[in-house]
Amino acid sequence: MWYEILPSFAIMTVCMIIPGVATAQIHKFTNGGKEKRIVRVPWQWYMTERDKRVSGTGNYHDSKGLENIH
User: Are 55 and 68 in contact (CB under 8 A)?
Assistant: First the structure.
């Protein structure tokens, strides 16, 4: 019957989801709790560079907020 395909479909779905979730978790672990930024347009690159400068550590994921801007 048609429902015999459900276990195979569930296994394939889980196998397709695992790499994306695992990648996001690895990025969060290596970047101090924040997901990795993906730069697709020049504005995003500019903001990443600004956050590196503002953080004082040279890492975009260590941004401190408005109190660090002089």
Answer: yes
Distance between CA atoms of residues 46 and 64, nearest Å = 17
Other C-beta atoms lying within 10 Å of the C-beta of residue 10: 10
C-alpha span between 51 and 64 (Å, rounded): 9
Cα torsion angle, 47, 49, 52, 56, sign: negative
pTM: 0.49
φ, ψ (nearest 5 deg) of residue 43:
-60, -40
Q: What is the pLDDT of residues 16-34, one digit of tens each?
A: 999 989 988 888 888 777 6
